[in-house]
């Protein structure tokens, strides 16, 4: 197996079919063998039902179902632990960053022998994108000062790994929420891995409900940065 793609899911029924179709179309156009692993984090809508129906029809797909809501980080970690591909990675199923970047990122690991490849987000110019860019840069600056991230865009939900190399690091991660993205990158950087960033365009979707809780998540990030620094 060349590529394992993890798709963490929580209440994704609104955009599930369209997003999965785009992702499969991209993977089918490559020369790589692949598997898609859905991880449903105890969704409260029809997501789990849609996943079950989809995997029955496609031999390239399987799924993990959480018995309770564990958090985004836990969903990604559990999916990566189930992976069998030489390259294992994940993207956010809403496709706010297009799946079209997947082949290039996989190539960087398979051919260039990078250990980790992640997206670095860029935004179209409008009021909301400017605010997001300011917040993103602010977090990158703070994270670099506190836990030495090297200014990486750690929070991009678009990361691919040399699976065998990342496994020992993956098993050391502890955070189950959104901060997991920062934690895995800090640990990968600390392990001396070759990390490559790829510029990716972020296009905000307005046809879905966000699962981000701004005030609670910001507080969690600050506490988690402090704990990881210790």
Automatic annotation (TrEMBL):
It holds the Pfam family Glycos_transf_2. Residues 4-164 form the Glycosyltransferase 2-like domain. This is Glycosyltransferase 2-like domain-containing protein. It comes from the Bacteria. The lineage of its organism: Bacteria, Candidatus Gottesmaniibacteriota. InterPro entries: Glyco_trans_2-like, Glycosyltransferase_2, Nucleotide-diphossugar_trans.
């Amino acid at each position: 197996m060349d590529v394992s793609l993890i798709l963490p899911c929580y209440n994704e029924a609104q955009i599930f079919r369209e997003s999965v179709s785009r992702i499969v179309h991209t993977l089918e156009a490559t020369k790589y063998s692949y598997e898609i692993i859905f991880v449903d984090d105890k969704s409260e809508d029809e997501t789990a039902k849609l996943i079950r129906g989809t995997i029955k029809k496609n031999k390239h797909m399987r799924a993990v179902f959480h018995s309770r809501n564990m958090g985004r980080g836990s969903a990604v970690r559990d999916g990566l632990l189930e992976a069998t591909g030489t390259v294992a990675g994940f993207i956010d199923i809403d496709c706010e960053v297009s799946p079209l970047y997947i082949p290039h990122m996989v190539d960087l690991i398979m051919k260039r022998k990078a250990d980790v490849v992640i997206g670095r987000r860029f935004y179209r110019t409008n009021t909301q994108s400017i605010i997001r860019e300011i917040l993103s840069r602010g977090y990158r600056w703070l994270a670099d000062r506190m836990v030495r991230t090297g200014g990486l865009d750690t929070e991009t939900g678009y990361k691919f790994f040399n699976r065998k190399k990342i496994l020992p690091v993956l098993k050391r991660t502890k955070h189950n929420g959104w901060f997991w993205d920062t934690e895995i990158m800090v640990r990968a950087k600390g392990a001396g891995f070759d990390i490559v960033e790829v510029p990716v365009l972020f296009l905000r979707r307005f046809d879905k409900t966000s699962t981000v809780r701004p005030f609670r998540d910001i507080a969690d990030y600050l506490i988690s940065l402090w704990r990881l620094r210790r």
